[in-house]
Amino acid sequence: MKYIKRNIFALILFCVLFVVAKIQHLTLPFFWDEAWPYSTGVFHMYSNGLSLLPGSVPFDISRGHPLFFHFISAIWMKIFGTSLMVIHLFPLLISILLIMCVYFFCIDFFSDAVALASCLLLMVQPVFFSQSAMLLPEIMVALLTLLSLWTFLHKKKLLYILFATLLLLTKESGMVIIIALFSWNIIEKIRQNKQQRFLRILAEGIYLLVPIAIAAIFFILQKIKTGYFFFPMYVSENNFKWAVFAEKLKNYFAYVFIYQGRNILSIVLILSIAVILMRKFKISPKHKQIIFPMIIFSALYLIFSSLSFYSPRYMLSILPFLTLISSYMLFTAAQRKRVIYFTSLTFIILASVFYCFRKKPVTDHSPGFADGVSVTQNAINWCEVKNMQDKKIYSSFLLQMHLTHPEHGYLSSDKRFNNVVNSFDSTVDVCIFPNYEYDESYNVLKQHGNFKLVKRFEKNYAWCEIYEIAN
After folding, report:
1. Distance CA 198, CA 127 (A)
2. Choosing a second label site near 106 at 20 to 30 A (CA), which of 116, 257, 411, 430?
């Protein structure tokens, strides 16, 4: 009991340190998809009324996604305000809640040592650290996925239906955990009683599909209003071509198991499994019934994500399960030899921490995002000081949004830039290019004889350049 209390105290201490490390990010303007479409959609719902119905946020902004994340974020803003710090505190709170749920989930099914290790490993994942205070739904998706599994394992049917429904109303990918649990339920029932009729097995597990029936109401209404169930970009025929699917699957697999220092985690996991098999250490049936649904979910999630739009941050839902399984396998392989266990764990954590300080690449799933925000803000503020609000400005898509949407946090006042265009022609006065957002016209336009570089802002691997017509 003293050891458990000591671990809870350690967890609270690490959570406090995590929050302290994130304070520097709470006042930053929104970045990448956080800026558009998510913050734009949340502010629209905040200003125009709370609703979960399709169309409550314009479809070009909502991208056809369910609106629970927008809904609950807008409620938070109604209660606590709309400053950047207040808004970023909401996803940070969800992130801490996810860490706590991972801990108590492990206490419930595994051990206190596995619980603390799983939480620490999750905290130091660079993608989790980066996303933990961003106004994006992926951390909430991961939290609701874990809660759906937790309530399923405890046979809390009503709670499962609640969490799985909220999950589906947050992101379509929520159907993966539902399918995984429904499939696992069938496998387990057949294994336990091969004489039981298959139709009866299906009937006993039909409650697992109830969230899909509830969430279907949203998509049916969306079909009536727009003509599509899912945003066309996400179900493009190109996504289902084998070459495209295989490339995405390869990249997602590498991201989950190799990138950001997770190669060390994967190596330790593989070695731990090898030791368990060679030494014939036993994994209890109870633990198998928890780990196998996680593996089924992770495999299906990789496949599902590879059939849709590519974005590495989607893999956040897998990471709590990866860190949990890795901690458990390492603990089992070490067989209470704490020196081996803690040495290996420390090595894995240090490898991940190294990448938490790495500023490359400049993306929303890497700590380098803060540098991207910094150079963008400096460039826009410089344009404000130079009174360029009425000049014709061409830039990449996200910068166009930042220049015209004060809620993104980059403008020093509500005064927007009035003549921002999305195509270049001879009447353009200014071009702005950030390196984190690829623009194929950059290499052509910077060689243009009438344009000259007037300002460049740079921080680590991020930069933003401003070009004007030469006099």
Report:
1. 42
2. 257
In the block, which residue shows the tokens 């540098």? 371
Q: Report which secondary-structure segment, H or E, holds 306.
A: helix 285-306
Note whether 255 and 314 are within 8 A (CB): no
Inform me whether the pLDDT recorded for 1 exceeds 60.
no
- Phi and psi at residue 427, to the nearest 5°: -90, 0
* Digit-coded pLDDT (tens) for 163-187: 999 999 999 999 999 999 999 999 8
What token pair was written down for 187? 């496998």
**pLDDT of 421 over the 60 cut:** yes
Residue 314 has a CB neighbour count (10 Å cut-off) of: 21
> Domain locations in the chain?
2-356, 369-469
What is the DSSP pairing of strand 430-434 with strand 393-395? parallel
Q: Is the pLDDT of residue 146 over 60?
A: yes
Starting at the edge strand that comes first in sequence, how are the strands of the sheet with 393-395 ordered?
Answer: 420-421, 393-395, 430-434, 462-469, 451-459
Instruction: Give me the pLDDT at residue 280, please.
Output: 86
Strands 451-459 and 462-469: antiparallel
Q: How would CATH label the architecture of 369-469?
A: 3-Layer(aba) Sandwich (3.40)
Query: Cα(426)–Cα(455) distance, rounded to whole angstroms?
Result: 21
Encoded amino acid at 161, one letter: I
Which residues make Cβ contacts (< 8 Å) with residue 114, sequence separation at least 6?
A: 106, 324, 327, 328, 331
What is the C-alpha separation between 290 and 285, in angstroms, rounded? Answer: 9
